[in-house]
Structures are given as C-alpha cells and as structure tokens.
Amino acid sequence: MILIFGGTTEGRRATEVLEEAGKPYCYSTKTGEQDISLHHGLRIDGAMDGEEMCAFCRKHQICLIVDAAHPFASKLHQTIARVGTLLQMPIIRYERIYPPRDPDIEWIDDYLQVPTNIHTLLATTGVQSISILKWLEEKGIKVIYRILNRESSIELAHQQGASDEQLCFYEDGNTIDVDADAILLKESGISGGFVEKVEAAKKRGMRIIALKRPSLTSTPSPLTSYTVNGPYGLRRMVEKLLPDFFPMKTGLTTGACATAAVKAALLSLMDEESDEVTFALPDGETLSVPVHVEQMGVASVVKDFSDDPDVTRGCTIIAKVRLTDTPDIHFLQGEGVGVVTLPGLGLPVGEPAINPTPRKMIETTIRELTERGCDITISVVNGEELARKTFNSRVGVVGGISIIGTSGIVSPLSNEAFIESIRREMEVARAIGCMEIGLVSGKTSEDALHFDRLKMYRRERDIRCIHYGNFIGEALKSAAELGFQHVIVAIMIGKAVKLAEGHLDTHSHKVTMNKEFLKQIAGPDADKIDHITLARELWDTMPPTFFEAIQDLCYKHCRKVFPEGDLTIRLVCDKQPS
Q1: N or C: where does the chain have the smaller number of CB atoms within 10 Å of the terminal CB?
Q2: Domains of the chain
Q3: pTM attached to this predicted model
C-alpha cells in the first residue's frame, strides 16, 4: 500500500493521481482540517513521530511513501526520510514548482534576519511563526499576523501571544487589504499563491521580505529517494516503482521526446553529456527522460511503451542541433518528419510538422541553456512508414509523422480501459459530493472551462473536469446513470462537427468531417465549405449562426443519452485565451 503525507495542494493532487488506479492507499494529515474526500483512500489524521510512523507502515504494509507535505515542514520531512531508511522503503518527494527568485525581493534564511528598520509588518508566514516573530514587537515594530479564519488557528494565535487586533484573515489570498510598510512571506511556490501575494504587495508599494524555502539537501536522504513536482511525474514514478499499481501505463508524446533529445544534443555541444535530461512540460512541471547521445550535437530518445495504441509507440526520435551566430531558432525537416502542405494547422506551409506546443517546449528548453541561435533538425526512424498508418495525409502533412502533444504526456487509451477510467473518475467525483462536472476532450477545452469560471466569478472556481477522449456518448451515459445534475460538455470544433451529425464516438478511425453535412447547415454559405481542409478553419470562414446551429445539434444528440438534468454545450475555439 502507498502512504501519502499531505494537507497541501500537492497532497490533494497526489490523491487524484492514486485514485486513478482504483486501489486502496492511505492519506495522512496533521490536523485533519483539510477539506478533502477520498473514494479509495483511508484518511489518517494526527501527527506521527518516527516510532509511530514505523509502526503504522508495518501494520498497513506500506511499501512506498509520497511526501507531499508543506515545504517548510522540515521536521516531518526528516522523520519520513529516517523511516524510509530504517524500513528500506522508497520515498517520493512531491515538491512544488517555484518561480525564479525576484531580485526586488529581500530574501532571508531565518526569521531572525527580518529587517528592523520598518514600522508595520504584515506577516503571512502562518500561525506557528507568531511566537518566533515576537522579538520584532520588542523592537517597537507593529506586527499584524494573517492567519486562516478557523477556530483552531485563532486559539493557537492567542496561545502564542497575539491579540485580536493583531489578527487578520485570508478572505482572498490574492489581495492585501492591510496597511503595512512591509510584508513577510514564505517562499511557498506557485501552488502556495506566492506569485499572487508578491504582485498584490507590489501594487500597494510594500517592501517585500521572503523567507527562503528549506533546501532539500538539509533533509537526510533515505536509501532510495525520488523528487517530482507534478502529477505526471508522480504517476510515472509510481508506475516505475510499483509496476502493478496502475492497470495501464502512461507515456510521452513525440513532442516531449523531441524536447528531451534536443536538450541532450545541445548539452553535448557544451561538453555536458548525460544518460538522462530534465525538461519542463507546458504547465511547468519537470520530467526526467533517458537519452542517448549519438555524437556531438546529436541525441535520440525512444518513445517509451505506454498502454496507448498509438503508432509511434516505441519509435526512435532523433534531434540534431547546430549552433548559429544569429539569435533565431529554426526548425528543419529531418527524415521521417512530415512537411506541412496545407493551411489550417497553425504552421506555415512548407514548415516541418512540429506543432506549436512542442516548438515552444523546445525553444524554452534551449533558452534555459543559451541565447545563441540554433538550427534544430528532428528526425523519426521509419517515420514515413508510420505516417501511412495515420490520417496525416488528409490534413496536408506528407512525408512523415507530426511531432505533437499539448501536455507532453500520453494517457492510455485502449477503448474498454479508457471508458472504464471515465466511469471511475465520475464515481470518485460523485462520491465526494460533486453534482456538476465538465466533460472535456483535452487540455485546451479543460482550460477553456476554467477560464469561463475565472471570468464569471472573478477568481478561480474549480469545476471537476473529466476527459472523454472521443467517447462523448459513453461519458454522458455514465453521468446520467450516476445522477449528475449539471454537465458541461466542452468540445473543439473538429469533434463538434462529428457530434452534430450524430456520432457520439468521434474517433477519426470511425468518422471524419462530412463536408456535405456541413453544407446543409451552412445554407447560403455552403460554398465556403469547399475551401476548408480542417474543421478549425471554420472559425475564420463561417458566420456565428453556423456555430449556433452546430451547438444546437450537439445538444440534441447529447440529450439522447443524458435526458435529465442541466446540459450545456460549450464550443471551444483554440484561438481564444484559455
């Protein structure tokens, strides 16, 4: 069994990852006050010392610990590391993602380094730090403590000597409504709202003082320890350490593989060779990938074997990097990579079929290492032969495959397993009390729903999103059977035109865009349909009434399998902000 130490955003994300397996695990928090519901997990509340932790692990046959506790919980991190060593158990440290340290911020290593040449300080470092900061009051500094507005926190603040007049609360973590000369923050990372707090403080002209996060090197290492900073890395590490925990394995997109190969090739030009490189996914999470340096400036990556039936599974992707004297980065077509021959793919005609997201990943990776220009040539072994098994030629990509991927990760998509995973996610959502869900086809449509919420409520308001892939009908059937009261289907235009015709499974192997059907909808604008190759071109071609008709037809067909409850169809344009 797996034991998670959480109580944090990372802890919540870790539970979401493990829930996908449908197997039992344990989730431990110190106070039990985190609002979180588990479907397959056993909730454990209360602090544990080393002896208690060892006893618990033995009793529950724990074979892996995920340390997703707060980055400043140094004592707990140390205890976990000692227990891991004693029990010879692997530890996965789920770290946060941190922005670069802003030079305009005053960085300190200890509370005793807080400057004393200030009059009023807003301390946002948590209720546990009140007693530590009392020395500032002795220096004549007025200190206001911002804490969580809950009874246990207020009681603890009083115990540490804070008066009611010194307390303010987190009504909205992204704003500051206290008059103070300076603010004291913990380096809590992106998930801890550090960036938003800094921005709010700057708007008020406050002096910003930040306590640096504890270094990982200050924590003793267990015999086997691994660090991840996102859900994809956590799942892949669990798959590696406990191969039987998840029924199916994830993989890497061709774009992620190409990025890793480019970094390895570029490092070899800088006399740095490695059999593994680390790079950032589009959402900022980093992954480490095995690489092979073929020669100076040339490296390859084998697209690892996931349980997704994609034709590129197991193929070899090669990157050749040549440094230039200009600052520009150019992508060149290598053997086995297609070339774009028609508009509509978001790439100029004549360019190698390396999609925008992989290009951005590669460019970001390069710029972390050098400001020099580069010629990047991506090749795929047997890519032209693989492309014959795809629909590339229909969208104007010839001569090889496309380098694609919006998240960097390939989820397993065997039909029965994927439909089962949709159902399982819905069961989890229903079990934790969700009555509203968003059904999304991928990252772009999921981002669109979150963007809608941001506009509607002026701040992030979560909606639980479940990816349906191509199985819109199966997803809606499960939603109806499980009694969801409100379902929002966010759908890209390429799938929407298929759904509008009545196809509840939109996979390209089963159905393609029907221009004759679209002409019937277009009416007097039917002639415009002849000139499009890809559905996304409709956004630039057709009037709003066309999309209203598509949306109405999608609603009609979805109602057949989701007859009760509120149903919303949200057409997503990939050109709008998300």
Answers
A1: N
A2: 2-96+222-241 (3.40.50.720), 106-211 (3.40.50.150), 251-410 (3.30.2110.10), 415-572 (no CATH)
A3: 0.74
